[in-house]
């Protein structure tokens, strides 16, 4: 390579690295040998020395620790904060909790999407948390804080609200797995009162020391945290939101206590395979710039009971109602660990009917005959040891019933899969907290 090109290349590499964001735990990951890679503008751990397979299994059987500080946190305040979110967010905040479809209350969260007004495509998915009638938190994906801020500002008009991007101020750690509560019990100052009533998609506390809405969730050293149960693995666990500067000490405290519970640090590899097995989408991959219709996650839309219409006006509604969209997203499960990358979908007649959105291996599941079991399935056959199965999501040109056989093909291989309604059985995310901390 000519000398001048080497100089140009090195300058390019320098500025590329300068433009990569780091979480508060970045130095810790590098020091402890994590395999790092760029993800959504951040340098993030993909896996550690034990490998993604062991990290995945640890979350199913013990507990795993994830750095999720790359997520963006927005704070919406003001007397019209509810009105702005009700207009821009897909869920009807007035009837979205429980079988009775009650309004979202303080301390509750809900999942939904922000849609494009023009075509009903997904700008990003999000978890919205109600702190108080005039205080809300919006948790969006890495690199999407500024995008969603601009989206909300564009529809602000006369709404009396303040939109603040807290991404650079807030750290986030996820502890996931059946023993997560046992680990947390040792670092919380009053664990019994914190755990009481902390059901799935609920939260307590605040990462803001001065917050008037904090309900006393603190660590033993007095550090305030916001603790929620909205994890992205399908398994029982918690998310700790904290001040950015407190991230490392909380991470190390969890690891120190967690040694007796077989805790492992986990990277994005295990996070991806766990969320796929739990039938959870990756924004900008499984949902994206196409109409948010005909997929497993349309519960995030404000359908009425009969699913004949919507219960509120929202940005993207007209586009969805007018869309002539004939593609369908469905989950699949394979028959061994083999995967395809950027593959096509072929039906029994040999016709190409779509593309592969996600294809990973859930190492915690396996087949016995026609039945898929998890390593945690209470009814698994004696001696069952999961060998792992490929799984993921397809975008295809017609709706297919569960059990339909398909072929996925890329430049390297073909694998047989079947359409399914669910992937990894016996997931623990919704288990009562009382069951998991005794």
Number of domains: 3
The quaternary structure here is single chain
Order of strands across the widest beta sheet? 10-11-12-9-3-13
Distance between termini?
64 Å
Tell me what the structure shows:
The chain has 438 residues and is an alpha+beta fold. The chain folds into three domains: 158 residues, Gyrase A, domain 2; 94 residues, Aminomethyltransferase beta-barrel domains (Alpha-Beta Plaits, 2-Layer Sandwich); 95 residues, Aminomethyltransferase beta-barrel domains (Elongation Factor Tu (Ef-tu), domain 3). Helix content is 21%, strand content 28%. The chain has eleven helices and 21 strands. The chain has a six-stranded mixed sheet with strand order 10-11-12-9-3-13. A six-stranded antiparallel barrel has the order 14-19-16-15-20-21. Strands 5-6-7-4-8 form a five-stranded antiparallel sheet, with helices on one face. Strand 15 and strand 16 form a beta hairpin. Helix 3 crosses helix 9. It is globular. The N terminus is likely disordered.
SSE order and pairing:
Layout: H1 3-18, H2 26-31, E1 35-39, E2 42-47, H3 52-61, E3 64-67, E4 72-77, H4 81-88, E5 108-115, E6 122-132, E7 135-140, H5 145-154, E8 162-165, E9 170-176, H6 180-185, H7 191-195, E10 203-205, E11 226-228, E12 237-243, H8 247-258, E13 264-266, H9 268-277, H10 317-322, E14 328-334, E15 344-346, E16 352-362, E17 365-368, E18 371-374, E19 389-396, E20 405-409, E21 414-419, H11 433-436
Parallel strand pairs: 3-13
Antiparallel strand pairs: 1-2, 3-9, 4-7, 4-8, 5-6, 6-7, 9-12, 10-11, 11-12, 14-19, 14-21, 15-16, 15-20, 16-19, 17-18, 20-21
Helix pairs in contact: 3-9
